[in-house]
Inverse folding.
């Protein structure tokens, strides 16, 4: 008993032993994943299927689930509230590299500027979208809809590009099969008699 180690859930901050809690929820939590906004995700079958080897595109649409309020400036609602700041929103799924390039690219910034939101920037940080140069009021009054439209457009561009590449691969494969058959037929006509 003297050299029994105490786990983090069994000791308080000063290191003295406390009552041992049931570890049922701890075991379940240790098997689960936690998303960027602190949400509990015990079932990862959708994400695993989306990122499994051979999966070309992540499953499900790309959209924002909501604002990560814990990342908002602490000064909000006070006299020291900044006029503009960065707002983090949570993606519905992991962002593909092609999608990230389009979201963070100059075309996205100029699209938002053309729609009346100059100075707004977008940056992907894991499963968060950091929207800089804005505030909650601006997002609520129309910027959120513009960002959602931009994400739909980005996803459509990526899907279209992938379909085009898939079509090109199929055409190349068919042409390669025809070429190989032609070469084989030529080779079969050669007789060493």
């Amino acid at each position: 008993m003297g050299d029994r180690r105490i786990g983090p859930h069994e000791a308080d901050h000063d290191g003295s032993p406390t009552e041992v809690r049931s570890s049922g929820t701890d075991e379940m939590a240790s098997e689960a994943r936690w998303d960027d906004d602190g949400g509990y995700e015990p079932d990862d079958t959708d994400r695993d299927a989306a990122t499994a080897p051979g999966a070309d595109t992540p499953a499900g649409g790309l959209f924002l689930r909501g604002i990560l309020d814990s990342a908002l400036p602490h000064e909000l609602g006070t006299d020291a509230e900044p006029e503009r700041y960065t707002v983090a929103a949570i993606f519905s799924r992991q962002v593909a590299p092609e999608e990230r390039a389009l979201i963070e690219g100059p075309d996205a910034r100029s699209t938002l500027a053309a729609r009346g939101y100059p100075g707004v920037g977008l940056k992907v940080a894991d499963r968060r979208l950091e929207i800089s140069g804005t505030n909650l009021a601006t997002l609520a009054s129309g910027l959120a809809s513009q960002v959602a439209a931009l994400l739909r457009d980005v996803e459509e561009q990526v899907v279209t590009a992938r379909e085009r590449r898939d079509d090109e691969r199929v055409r190349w494969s068919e042409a390669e099969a025809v070429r190989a058959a032609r070469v084989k037929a030529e080779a079969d006509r050669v007789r060493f008699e």
The two ends are 90 Å apart (CA to CA). The longest strand covers residues 85-91.
